[in-house]
Each structure stands twice: as C-alpha cells, then as structure tokens.
Amino acid sequence: MGHYKSNLRDIEFNLFEVLGTGDRLGKGPFADIDAETARDILAEVRTLAEGPLADSYVDSDRNPPVFDPATNSVMMPAAFKKSYKVWQDAEWWRLECTPAYGGTLAPRSLVWSIGEMVLGANPAVWMFNCGPAFANIIHELGTPEQQAIGQLMVDRLWGATMVLTEPDAGSDVGAGRTKASRQDDGSWHIEGVKRFITSAEHDMSENIIHYVLARPEGAGPGTKGLSLFIVPKYDFDWQTGELGTRNGAMVTNVEHKMGLKASTTCEMRFGETIPAKGWLLGEVHDGIAQMFKVIEHARMMVGSKAYAELSAGYLAALEYAKTRIQSADLTRSGDKSAPRVAIINHPDVRRQLMTQKAYAEGLRAVALYAASVQDKIQVAEFEKGNEVPGGLADGEASAGEKAKRQASVDERLNDLLLPIVKGVSSERSYEQLGQSLQVFGGSGYLQDYPLEQYIRDNKIDSLYEGTTAIQGQDFFFRKIVRDKGTALGALSAEIQATLDSIGDEARLKVEGEAVGKALSEVGTMVGAMIGQLTSTQDDIRNIYKVGLNTTRLLLSAGDLVIGWLLLRQALVALEKLDGNGLSASDKAFYEGKLAVARFFANNVLPELVSRRKIVEGTDNAIMDVSEDVF
Ligand code: ST9
Ligand code: FAD
C-alpha cells in the first residue's frame, strides 16, 4: 500500500450530489462520457493513484533526478519512470486534450477531480505529462502550420514547459531581458537566461517544447513587450516529427530544493553555445495574454495539488489518531489509573482534525466549484457553435444572447475564483499540513510517515505560479476593482441564494447566520479598501493601506467561500439524512458534512469580524518607519 489515501467519496459527492456535473454528462459537448463512465474513470484513476503512481513518491524524494553538466541532461529515477509510464499508458491524460488531436472533451470538474488524485499521489507525474494540455494552446492560438506541432506533441508524448522566470524577473515578469531576433526564414533566435523552469530536462520523452517569453528587438518595456515563442529541445520535421539537430535551449543546472524533488527545476540558457531557434506563436506579438492561458490552467493545477496533499495528510492523521493510545480522557485526568484512550478522544486533537477536515474538504469544494463554472463555460462555447440566429421581437433577448451574457459572467466568476483556488488553497493547505503532522506527535517529524514530505512538497504551492502576494493583488485590483464588482456580485448572489434556500430549516440556522455575517464582513472589507483606493486622489501613499490588506482580503474571501460551500453541502447532507435506507458509511459521511459546516461556522468564520476591523483601521504606520526598525 502506497502513501496516498484519496477521498473519492467526497469528490463524487461534490460532482454528483452538489455541483450537478452528472446532469451535464452524456450530452452536448460531453456526449462521449455519461455519468456511469465518469464514475468508472474516477475509480480507475483512484486505483492507479493509490497504487503504481504513489509507489515511487518516496523513492524519488530520496533518490532525486541526477543532472549531468557535461551533457546538459538529466537522469530520472527508475522508480519514477515506472509510475510515469503507467500514467502515460493509461491514457486518461487524453481527457485534457482537444478532440482535434485525439482527445475526449470532458468537463473540467471531472478533469480536476482526476487531477486531484494524481497530484496527491505523485504531483510530478501530472506535471511532466502536461505536453498534451500545452498542445491545446498551439491548437487554439497557433497558425495552421504550427497546429501540426500540437498534433506531434500529443502523438509522440513530447514534454512541455512554461518559461517566464529570469534571475531578475520573478513576480515582475515584465522585467525579463531574454531577447528574440527575427531570422530571414521567419524563425526567431532566442538569447537569455531563464531560471526555475519545471520539467525543462528529463529522459522520459524524445523532445521537449518550451513556451518561452522573450522580448523581440525594438519591443516596448514590461509584460506587454513580451512575445511567446515555441522553442524545441530538438529541431524536428513539422510533418513527420522526425528529430533533427539539437537546438540551443540548454539546461545548465538543476536546483537542489526543499521538496517536490522528482520535478526538475532547471536553469536554462538560450543561444549561448548554439542558436536557440523558435517560432512566434500564432505569428502575433501578444505573449503575456497568450501565456496567461497557460498560467490560468497552471494556477488551477497548483491549487488542486495543494489541497490534494492536505487531504492525504488529514486522512493519514485521522487514521493515526484513531490508533495512537495516549493519556486518559480529559474527564478522568485526575485519575492516574484511568484507562488510556486513543488520541482522537482529546478535545484539542479533535479541534485540529476538524479544522483539517474543514479546509481539505472546503478547498476541494472551492476548486471543484470553480471547475464547475468552467464546465458551464465549456457548454456555453459548445452552444455558441450551435446558435439559432434571429427572428425575435425587439428587446427580446435570444436564448443565444442570454447564454452569451451568462457565459461572460461565468468567465468573470472563474477569473475571480482562480486566485482563491491558487492562493488560499496553497496557504491554508501548508498551514494545516503542519497540524496534520502535529497529530502524529514526534513520529510525524520522522521519515517513517509521509507528513514531513507532504509539507516539504507542499510549500512550493504558495510560491510558484505567482506568490500569495501576487494572488491577493490580482484578486483585489484586477478581479474586483477592474471588473467593477461584476463577478463579486454574482458570487454574492449565489451565496445569498443558498442562505435564502435554508428558509425555516432550524438545523442550519447557526451556520446560515454565520455565513450571512461573513458575507457582510467581506463586503465591508472590500468597501473599506475601495475607500482607501479612492483616497489616493488626496494622498497617493494611501495605496499602501490597500497593499497591506490584499492578502488578508484574499484569505477572508476564501474562508467565506469555504463556509458557504460547506453550508451548501450540509443542506444536501440534511436532505439525504432525512431520507431512508442509508448505509452506515453514508450516514457517517453526511453527518460529517453537518459537523464540519457547523464547526467552521462557529470556529473560523467569526474571525472575519476582527479581520474586518483590522482592514478598517489600517494606517500607514509600518510604511512610515525606516527600514532600520525591522
Ligand atoms: C511557474 C510554473 O511558476 C510552476 C509550475 C509549473 C508546472 C508545469 C506546468 C503545468 C501547466 C500546464 C498548463 C497547460 C496549458 C493548458 C491550457 C489549456 C487551454 N489573468 O496587470 P498587468 C495579463 S511559471 C489573465 O499590467 P504587469 C493580461 O494580458 C511562472 N491575464 O501586469 C494583462 O493585460 P490587460 C509564473 C492576466 O504589471 C497583462 O497580463 N509566474 C492576469 O505587467 C498585463 O497585466 C507568475 O505567475 C490574470 N490574472 O505584470 C508571475 N494578470 O491588463 C506572477 C495579468 O490588458 N506575477 N494578465 O488584460 C504576476 O502575475 C504579475 O501580476 C504580472 C504583473 C507579471 C502579471
Ligand atoms: P520574487 O518575485 O523576488 O519575490 C520575493 C518575495 O517578494 C515574495 O514573497 C513575493 O511575494 C514578494 N513580492 C514581490 N513582488 C511583490 C509585490 N509587487 N508586492 C508584494 N510582494 C511582492 N517559473 C517559470 O517561469 N516556469 C516554471 O516552470 C517555474 N517553475 C518553478 C518551480 C519551482 C520549484 C520554483 C521555486 C519556481 C518556479 N518558477 C517557475 C518560478 C516562480 O514562478 C517564481 O519563483 C515566482 O514567480 C516568484 O518569483 P521570485 O522567486 O523571483 O520571487
């Protein structure tokens, strides 16, 4: 038995009992996958995840990839290669791949459910295997000639990378200095140094396609001056895929890092010894917008990875807490001869476990909710293709127009949710994994259990794909202010609709009131921050007040959405519990949903009151002191 424990029951609960994924299956864009097939796929992926994919997780941490500077190559651990091959052979990655290249269109909520299990079992397997998903970008944005490259990437299972970061351009991608110069044959030569590039070298595919941001000669500063180039490791025949000469995109170092060691993190030098030849994606200079299509996908992946690891950590801690006997029950602590009990009986351990459960299941609920919004966008896009034109009275919106309007709200809602999925999931998962380890006592600190590796592997999630600070700023400035509150309004309306649906249900009164109060607190925080932003007209330094609160707002909005979704799940659970014929395990599962919603409402959501007060009372005191004070 490997290290990984999935929670397929909860995944299926989200998909089929709460989010309505089942209703979208077997028709429209998802005609090829009905609900039964989806359940079969999930079960098969779980078997792989808990078995052969998880098998190499520990080994590749202790025996990480080896870099050979003489040949600029990397040897992957044998055990990892075995897991990787199992995943490639299973072909479930085709659900991430456009039908144009031989994939099957699947709802994103199903794809990310599968993703959760693979990412929880062995995250590097999913990451190395992103080539087919990257190929979608070429299909969508490439020229007709370039689209052939995407097909080769899928057919030959080439690897792929996203190449943004440079030594002096991390969060500030626009500071990148890597340059591109056009050649007479229409290709480009790339020159510069990139760092921290995931999957840039390995020995598991014959070729790797790098998606590189570089600045064409004469282009302007900042992100808007960057273009996106397709730069292969080996040159190749665009029709047959036959490999040609080695291209000048070289890995010159592989980092030694805290965790996630199976995933290679590479320094890359372009055009240093031989020219690094590439092609401008779509023959248009729109690099940052094009790259954000990859980034949005990758941010979803990172958020899913983060809570997948927390979920596994929580389930491991839960199992340990039921078997580890230590100390007497608190009610008998004065009695030295009282029987010793399993630690799950101690109130403080229960507090820790229930907080972990709340965040593990709550963050899953948030990610799958975002994914279900993506499902709706997929359906809307499909229906747009089938739209019946005109023939309506003045002022009457066609079904197509209505669908279009809704699609645009859904797109904005998805945009609003992404920093929550990425930023909140990574922060809370890391924080709570510390608590999972705590449940193990000193044993958790040993390599005998997976917790210490989970924590090391998880830390990266709040750093890459935009640090939490960047997610907080994205959430407030772009997803709320620039959006003029449209998506936030749509989300608030959904939360309010759940509150309204509670009606007279006394059993969820406490939870409903807590979520209602949290909604109002977050609304007040946003209002206060918009006030601070507006007051920059009088004093530009007031922008610091906003900057002091963007992460706080992001985490608070995350708690609100978690509280809301746990409540929504509790409503479903209550209905099930009121019915007949539940198995013992289902009864416990649904009762767990009520317990966790109540716990979160009583123990976490009230914290939003003090966070709102902090936001309202923010001044510039720490911006006014000198650096020497720190
Ligand atoms: C990394 C990788 O860390 C780690 C893991 C890799 C794992 C392997 C790969 C797996 C991925 C697989 C993907 C497959 C692909 C599948 C696709 C399927 C179809 N949303 O605000 P401005 C754009 S990689 C959308 O002025 P600044 C927008 O075009 C390294 N677009 O920014 C905008 O123009 P406009 C990750 C956005 O001040 C333009 O940018 N590094 C968004 O110039 C300029 O916007 C990072 O993530 C958005 N949220 O630059 C960097 N935001 O406004 C973090 C901006 O006209 N830093 N755009 O629309 C940032 O994000 C900064 O905020 C910044 C600031 C660079 C954007
Ligand atoms: P910096 O930008 O220097 O940030 C340092 C600190 O300052 C952070 O806490 C940050 O939040 C804060 N900060 C910076 N700017 C601001 C601001 N404006 N406001 C508030 N706080 C701010 N990159 C790729 O291109 N491709 C990859 O595949 C890839 N994979 C990676 C894999 C690993 C293991 C690692 C470690 C990194 C990877 N990265 C990759 C790079 C990653 O995306 C960057 O590390 C990340 O964007 C942060 O940049 P930085 O490390 O330069 O930190």
From TrEMBL:
Keywords per UniProt: FAD, Flavoprotein, Oxidoreductase
Ranges of residues in domain Acyl-CoA oxidase/dehydrogenase middle: 162-270
Cofactor(s) this protein cannot do without: FAD
InterPro entries linked to this entry: Acyl-CoA_dh-like_C_dom, Acyl-CoA_Oxase/DH_mid-dom, AcylCo_DH-like_C, AcylCo_DH/oxidase_C, AcylCoA_DH/oxidase_NM_dom_sf, Diverse_Acyl-CoA_DH
Pfam families, A to Z: Acyl-CoA_dh_1 (PF00441), Acyl-CoA_dh_C (PF12806), Acyl-CoA_dh_M (PF02770)
All residue ranges annotated as the Acyl-CoA dehydrogenase/oxidase C-terminal domain in the record: 416-472
Family listed: Belongs to the acyl-CoA dehydrogenase family.
Stated name of the protein: Acyl-CoA dehydrogenase
Organism: Jatrophihabitans lederbergiae
